[in-house]
Write a structure and sequence with these properties.
Elements (H helix, E strand, L loop, with lengths): L2 E14 L3 E8 L3 E7 L6 H4 L8 E11 L2 E11 L2 H4 L2 H17 L7 H16 L4 H14 L22 E4 L4 E3 L10 E4 L1 H12 L12 H19 L4 H8 L3
Parallel strand pairs: 3-5
Antiparallel strand pairs: 1-2, 1-4, 2-3, 4-5, 6-7, 6-8
Helix pairs in contact: 3-4, 3-5, 3-8, 4-5, 5-6, 5-7, 6-7
The protein binds zinc ion (ZN).
Length: 251
């Protein structure tokens, strides 16, 4: 049975039977994989807290290809992002990030950039404040990395840059902006202010190491939330469970 090693982040955990756990991981080399950790429920000592949500580790697994599950053999913890676990708001944010990755990805499709982004955002969340703009930046960059990059700088039909028009509208189905002139006759368009479209576009394009410095206006935060939720729902066909958790906390 072939054995593999990769960097992995726990994105979902489930108790299974009397003593096992089924863990979903997002890995740098294999994308999303699901694995069984034998005895992990009974003896926490074997895996320590390497199999807790958010934990980043060097994972060793056997690929049995039975029921699509790998067998988790061992994990060397790299970072548990401890500060996330001590703050309810941060837990809600973290749950949202990992659920988004889980729902937006298929198994065994490697996307090292997405893995890297998840690792960086868990770090940002653990070391800094839980600001809602973190979620907006993560959402737009995930859409982009997974091939659903919304067009937010120019009109999808006439190619005019947004700056030259007034208020624009977004078509979720078409995947981006339509200027006032080109949006005639379309239904289900969402109005968006040029400022919001611009900061979302910048958040998607800028160097990942600088996203912590971005400042969203209040309007960009609520407009961005409404627009990106609709884009995500359009692609995954449901509302994320952790979105409700965030709403219950007033976020
Ligand atoms: Zn146009």
């Amino acid at each position: 049975m072939p054995q593999f090693k990769t960097s992995a982040i726990v994105i979902k955990t489930l108790d299974y039977g009397e003593s096992d756990r089924i863990i979903t991981l997002y890995t740098s080399d294999f994308g999303k994989i699901k694995g069984i950790a034998k005895g992990a429920k009974k003896s926490r000592r074997r895996f320590s807290n390497a199999l807790e949500l958010f934990t980043l580790s060097r994972l060793i697994f056997f690929d049995k290809r039975e029921l699509g599950l790998v067998r988790i053999e061992g994990c060397d913890i790299v970072n548990t992002f401890p500060a996330i676990r001590e703050d309810l708001r941060k837990i809600a944010f973290g749950c949202y990030l990992v659920e988004l990755v889980d729902e937006m990805t298929a198994e065994r499709e490697a996307n090292p950039d997405l893995f890297n982004m998840l690792r960086i955002f868990l770090s940002l969340l653990s070391d800094g404040e839980a600001k809602s703009q973190i979620l907006r930046v993560f959402e737009i960059r995930s859409l982009s990395l997974l091939g659903y990059r919304p067009e937010l700088s120019r009109c999808l039909r006439c190619d005019e840059p947004l700056e030259h028009g007034g208020e624009a509208r977004i078509s979720i189905k078409k995947g981006g902006l339509l200027c006032e002139r080109c949006s005639q006759g379309y239904i289900d368009l969402i109005p968006v202010s040029p400022g919001t479209a611009k900061i979302l576009h910048v958040a998607m394009e800028m160097d990942l190491s600088k996203v912590g410095r971005l400042k969203f206006s209040r309007q960009a935060l609520w407009e961005g939330e409404a627009i990106l939720s609709k884009f995500i729902q359009y692609h995954i066909n449901k509302e994320l469970k952790s979105k409700k958790f965030l709403k219950d906390l007033g976020m």
